Amino acid sequence: MLEVIWSLAAFIITLGVLVTFHEFGHFWVARKCGIKVLTFSVGFGKPIWQRQGKDGTTYQVSRIPLGGYVRMLDERVDEVSAADQPYSFNSKPVWQRAAVVAAGPVANFILAIAVLWFMFLLGVPSVKPVIGNVTPNSVAAQVELTTPSEIIAVNGQRTDDWQQVNLAFAGALGDAEAQLTVRDAQQRERTLTLDIKDWRLGDEQVPTFVALGFEPFQPEVFTELAYIEENSPAAQAGLREGDKIVAFDGTLMDSWSQIRDAIMAAPAADITLTVERQGVTEQLAVTLGAREFDGQRYGYLGVEPAREAYPDDYRFVQQYGIVDGLVKGAERTWNLMVLSVKMIGKLLTGTVSVTNLSGPVAIAEGAGVSASYGLVYFLGFLALISVNLGIINLLPLPMLDGGHLVFLAIEGARKKAVSERVQEISYRIGGALIFALMVIAISNDVLRLLR
To answer: Pick the catalytic residue: 3, 23, 276, 424?
Structure first.
């Protein structure tokens, strides 16, 4: 329950910040162009808070926090006096109206730059993208790769951490091949060519590098127990920290992965663990617990194994000064913008399955998870969603900012506005398309929750 409340709170904060900046972009440029703004609303529906500003604008927060709007004086929908006519939206030249419409998405891009700049000023704890293993029979297994090896570039794009590797491979989806530059333990660099012409991203919710077969380096995990959960099956059976599991129901166990798989395959089963405790071998009767995940039951013991320390050489902090941080924030924002456009194209061509579309539930989960990791991770998530919101609003669909810009471009070219009848039909078609996309996205969210 607390997790749901946390995710909901993070979602409301995320959406509130993004919507406020988006609508402020429209509002600020409209005011600069001499347009009278009647209402500035964060959210839709009945207001829960409202205030009349000295500038004549009504500022409000409404009940449904899934968007917002800026209502400007417009002769097409309002009765406008002769004195107010010069301050109406429709009385302004095409270029000013286009600037007002485009200002919302631009504000989202500026917000992303500012957020990433602040994130890089604070410093982002990161790990180098070091490959620990390669999945057999995967795309990655096509090339001879020694492990551990660090991925330093994908298609010439520098990759400092796994997030950048993930984004770089996402951008390469649909290409015939991808150039992978790696550095091995002897500091030797090689550029390898991955054949990805048959690689498609299905509905599996895994990073692109995992789908390709690259397994990140993980410190060695031992069969010795480092932690026993209170009141767990392990605690009730008398297992202690420092015990080393030797056998599971008489079968010798050489690695923690074997032990983990054996436990998970025996939910609620009565089993015997052979453990080595202070040089003495003992057998303990254990009744495993059971937990459900994705509709399947798994065995549960309630322990954590001892692990080798993560190498300090693989850890680093991405932190920059005021100027370099701003440059890095702008560069990362541009890369996210390019990637967002590419992914939309890949959805249209079928390279990426529509099952990858996410709705408000997935955004809420992402907001909650990133916020739980810390401020810098939440800032990175906020920037990503801000860029996506800006790009989506620029799509040439009626009802979106991009659709309005198309109508204004046509008006500027033919020196005559598109007829209201054509605009009305276009808005209906655009509304139906947007509604269909929302249904798909929300359906995907629900299906993920039910798995």
So the answer is: 23
